[in-house]
């Protein structure tokens, strides 16, 4: 018997949604939550991981949606947004949530985020160059003091 091997693109972002209970919808009227699973192999994975702050959670807004959920495991990062805010309403239905998920997914696969990642990396490199220059200067001074003191003995 032959079996078909299904090969999934290891960089593909997976979308899922969860509908709110009737009780949670009260007062807001919105539909539910949207989630995106970003695999470790995706080019934006490390960049998105840099948005996680241990004290605050995930810090970031994409496509005008505040990311209010994140979780990591051995396969990657899962982020999500909810529609339970004061600014959400009945128009934030299932179609809206799916549309937002697809909009964010498209953005995460776009040249725009690649440019954002490049800019972030370049900024990081420049930041570390300045730190290295300051540390090198301190190291040089400390070595001079050490050798001056050692030679005096």
Summarize the structure.
By secondary structure, this protein is α+β, with helices and mostly antiparallel strands. The protein has helices at residues 22-25, 45-49, 94-108, 111-152; strands spanning 14-19, 32-39, 52-53, 57-58, 61-62, 65-66, 69-73, 76-81.
What does this entry look like structurally?
By secondary structure, this protein is α+β, with helices and mostly antiparallel strands. It has four helices and eight strands; from the N terminus they run E-H-E-H-E-E-E-E-E-E-H-H. It is elongated and about 80 Å long. The mean pLDDT is 89.
Coarse structural class: alpha+beta
**Radius of gyration over C-alpha positions, nearest whole angstrom:** 24 Å
Treating each run of at least 4 consecutive H or I residues as one helix, how many helices?
4
Classify the beta-strand content into a percent band: 15-25%
* Strand line-up across the major sheet: 1-2-8-7
Low-confidence stretches: none
Described by strand count, sense and barrel closure, the largest sheet is: 4 strands, antiparallel
Number of strands: 8
Helix content: 40-55%
Task: Give the overall shape.
Answer: elongated
Oligomer: single chain
């Amino acid at each position: 018997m032959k079996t078909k091997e299904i090969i999934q693109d290891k960089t593909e972002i997976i979308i899922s949604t969860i509908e709110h209970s009737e009780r949670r919808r009260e007062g807001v009227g919105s539909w539910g939550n949207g989630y995106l699973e970003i695999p470790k192999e995706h080019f934006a994975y490390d960049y998105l991981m840099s948005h996680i702050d241990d004290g605050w959670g995930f810090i970031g807004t994409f496509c005008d949606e505040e990311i209010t959920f994140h979780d990591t495991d051995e396969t990657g990062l899962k982020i999500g947004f909810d529609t339970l805010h004061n600014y959400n309403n009945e128009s934030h239905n299932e179609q809206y949530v799916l549309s937002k998920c697809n909009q964010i997914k498209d953005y995460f696969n776009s040249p725009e985020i690649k440019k954002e990642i490049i800019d972030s990396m370049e900024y990081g490199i420049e930041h570390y160059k300045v730190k290295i220059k300051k540390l090198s200067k301190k190291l040089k001074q400390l070595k001079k003091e050490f050798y001056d003191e050692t030679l005096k003995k």
